[in-house]
């Protein structure tokens, strides 16, 4: 796996704050990046973005991780397009080296870190 980018969803006064704090770079400057902050109200939607650089893309994973817990698998994207599961959707554009996770109707259970991981194959 190339690297992880993470975002933390926090609730304060009926607002959710998504704070992304980790950028991991591999050799040759490759890695995964996410923006630093996003805010949304409870019941609203929030979009977590992920941009990556790889030598050979083999897939992109999204995980949710609650404090003190292990990451929980949300989705795996290999092909371009939108995949919907429950109240979230994941989108992948290999051409733009970009993905996003869209969380709809935010609830307290969404208070977590969101991890984007890319598999980089070396040819």
List keywords for this structure.
123 residues, mainly beta, Immunoglobulin-like, six-stranded antiparallel β-sheet, disordered N terminus, Ig-like domain-containing protein, immunoglobulin domain, Ig-like_fold, immunity
Describe this structure in words.
This protein has 123 residues and is mostly beta strands. It has one domain (3-120): Immunoglobulins (Immunoglobulin-like). It has strands at 3-12, 15-22, 24-25, 31-33, 37-41, 46-53, 57-65, 72-77, 81-85, 88-93, 98-103, 113-120. The strands form 2 sheets. Strands 5-2-1-12-7-8 form a 6-stranded antiparallel sheet, with no helix packed on it. It has a 6-stranded antiparallel sheet with strand order 3-4-6-11-10-9, with no helix packed on it. The radius of gyration is 14 Å and the shape is globular. 29% of the residues are buried. It holds the Pfam family V-set. InterPro entries: Ig-like_dom, Ig-like_dom_sf, Ig-like_fold, Ig_V-set, TCR_variable_domain. One of its GO terms (biological process) is adaptive immune response.
């Amino acid at each position: 796996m190339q690297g992880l980018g993470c975002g933390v969803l926090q609730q304060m006064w009926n607002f959710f704050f998504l704070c992304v704090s980790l950028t991991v770079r591999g050799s040759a400057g490759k890695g995964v990046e996410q923006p630093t902050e996003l805010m949304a109200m409870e019941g609203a939607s929030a979009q977590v973005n992920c941009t990556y650089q790889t030598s050979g893309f083999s897939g992109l994973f999204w995980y949710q991780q609650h404090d003190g817990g292990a990451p929980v698998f949300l989705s795996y994207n290999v092909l371009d397009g939108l995949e919907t599961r429950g109240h979230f959707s994941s989108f992948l554009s290999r051409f733009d080296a970009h993905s996003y996770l869209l969380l709809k109707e935010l609830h307290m259970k969404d208070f977590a870190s969101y991890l984007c991981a890319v598999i980089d194959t070396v040819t």
